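ok new one. same drill as before - structure tokens go in, u give me an amino acid for every spot. 571 of them this time. try not to just spam alanines like last time pls lmao
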């Protein structure tokens, strides 16, 4: 891609990238002289925050960078102002691969040496992709696209495009805006007042980075990805995006106020992805509840800053919503909103339909990586009418190492869950989990009858599985008493210094402590001076659970009949 040696090519607030690295993208914040350094410099605020200063140098403030080390001064020839949409298409699909590209096609051998790879049928693939008029999907990520190009050029060259990935380009405007007034940003330099280039006398400029024009020329476009483009907060003049079903706006700086504007322009939107935008509130225009989005099936709000569940409740009236992704926010509790909660939220809003059931079609709720630490939040998930796919991993409540509960307790408490933390809950796992859970609760009820208040499904599950008060187990012929309270536990050595040994299956009292089990493992495996470290391997859990509370019993930590305990060694 060509760099520009003339500083007049650049304008303030223009998106640029480094000539040698199209993934190093930033925003022009200053154009002019820098004290002690000859010539004209471009002040850039880099997106990745990896630069030299905050926009000031040697005590002189030239611009305000987003962070202390995200700004730097660059010569014009080291920056690229971008290319047109069609130029990027030609680079990606028409240009023949260079020898350098061919050299980059390799795999690593067992001895970590490069082995060249030849793409079979390469000529046929390149020929098909080069026929741009037949192209239905295009990926132009990190190519420096900054403008749509000549009028109608896109429509004529790629008329059948349905999927378009523009991730990591230099787009910023939804629609071309002319004559935008900018605030005065002059500064003193050696006693003179300096006005940065690109503002002129009126302080007005035009930057043509128009998403709207691209969409207008692609009437069949159904999926558009604009991730990692720093989009303007002003959405004006954008046409009706009547064919867009999937819109991805991850890491674009957009907030919900702009989404409310886009909502009316997306009549058939089914998937909306808004990851990493710093969204902390669902701010609606005229109501406390989000209306519209009649076709929206999936909403992705992962990696944002939402801390209050009341903000999510504002989405509860989206009738078609089936998947809500909220991983890696700041939520510390959740609840199912009853009608009183909704009525209080909407106040006197006459447009609210009181017959609408909150989250009536929600089937998937991803809550991983939040701060949820209470059982009431877990139990509230049973109130969502159709919820069957739940993620709670990386929350305190689901991490036994932080005082949370193991997977089998989650399965037992969540009556309808079919997929938990990405793993299917089989019929067998549900049955075993519910029986283990009932026995665990029964062991805690002795001398503490109030404990039952913390377990709303206990009586239901106890009756369903026919478990008697004397700690019974369910056999093939019905309830059977476990007078001895023995559990069949498989011990499997995984410690390197112990060596390969066959698994051992032992019958152990349910009241055996973890400390006692460690001592038994030292005897069973003849460990000598090796100190064992134990883990519970659970069906459906990606990682085994560390058993580090030596005073806890097998029942306390969820070890049941036919459980597997991994025996490792202390490091």
């Amino acid at each position: 891609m060509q760099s520009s040696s003339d500083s007049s090519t650049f304008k303030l607030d223009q998106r640029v990238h480094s000539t040698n690295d199209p993934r190093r993208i930033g925003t022009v914040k200053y154009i002019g002289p820098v004290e002690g350094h000859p010539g004209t410099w471009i002040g850039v605020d880099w997106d990745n925050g990896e630069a030299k200063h905050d926009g000031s140098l040697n005590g002189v403030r030239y611009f305000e960078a987003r962070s202390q080390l995200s700004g730097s001064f660059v010569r014009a020839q080291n920056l690229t102002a971008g290319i047109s949409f069609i130029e990027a298409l030609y680079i990606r699909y028409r240009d023949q691969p260079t020898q350098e590209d061919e050299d980059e096609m390799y795999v690593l051998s067992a001895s970590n040496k490069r082995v060249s790879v030849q793409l079979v049928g390469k000529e046929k693939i390149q020929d098909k992709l080069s026929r741009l008029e037949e192209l239905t999907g295009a990926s132009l990520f990190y190519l420096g696209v900054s403008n749509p190009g000549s009028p109608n050029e896109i429509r004529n060259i790629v008329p059948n495009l349905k999927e378009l990935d523009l991730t990591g380009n230099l787009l910023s405007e939804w629609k071309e805006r002319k004559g935008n007034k900018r605030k005065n940003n002059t500064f003193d330099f050696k006693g003179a007042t300096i006005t940065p280039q690109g503002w002129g006398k009126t302080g007005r400029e035009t930057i043509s980075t128009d998403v709207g024009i691209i969409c207008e020329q692609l009437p069949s476009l159904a999926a558009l990805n604009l991730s990692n483009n720093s989009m303007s907060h002003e959405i004006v003049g954008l046409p009706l995006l009547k064919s867009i079903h999937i819109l991805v706006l991850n890491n674009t700086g957009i907030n919900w106020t702009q989404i409310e504007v886009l909502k009316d322009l997306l009549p058939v939107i089914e998937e909306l992805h808004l990851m990493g935008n710093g969204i902390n509130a669902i701010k609606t225009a005229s109501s406390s509840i989000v209306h519209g989005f009649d076709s929206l099936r999936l909403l992705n709000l992962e990696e944002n800053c939402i801390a209050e569940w009341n903000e999510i409740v504002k989405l509860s009236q989206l009738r078609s919503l089936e998947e809500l992704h909220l991983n890696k926010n700041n939520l510390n509790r959740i609840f199912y909103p009853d009608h009183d909660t909704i009525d209080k939220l909407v106040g006197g809003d006459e447009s609210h339909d009181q017959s609408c059931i909150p989250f009536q079609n929600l089937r998937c709720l991803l809550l991983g990586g939040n701060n949820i630490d209470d059982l009431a939040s877990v139990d509230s998930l049973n109130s969502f009418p159709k919820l069957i796919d739940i993620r709670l991993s990386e929350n305190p409540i689901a991490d036994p190492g932080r005082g949370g509960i193991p997977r089998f307790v989650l399965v037992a408490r969540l009556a309808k869950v079919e997929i938990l933390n990405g793993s299917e809950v089989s019929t067998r796992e549900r049955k075993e989990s519910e029986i283990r859970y009932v026995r665990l609760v029964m062991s805690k009820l002795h001398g503490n009858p109030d404990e039952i208040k913390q377990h709303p499904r206990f009586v239901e599950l106890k009756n369903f599985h026919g478990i008697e008060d004397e700690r019974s187990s369910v056999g093939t012929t019905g309830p059977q008493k476990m007078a001895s309270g023995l559990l069949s536990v498989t011990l499997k050595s995984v410690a390197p210094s112990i060596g390969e040994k066959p698994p051992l299956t032992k019958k152990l009292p349910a009241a055996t402590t973890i400390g006692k089990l460690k001592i038994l493992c030292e005897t069973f495996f003849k460990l000598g001076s090796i100190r064992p470290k134990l883990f519970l391997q659970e069906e459906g859990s990606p990682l085994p659970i560390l058993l580090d509370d030596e005073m806890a019993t097998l029942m306390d930590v969820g070890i049941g009949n036919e459980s597997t305990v991994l025996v490792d060694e202390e490091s």
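The CA atoms of residues 288 and 344 lie 10 Å apart. and btw The chain has a mean pLDDT of 84.
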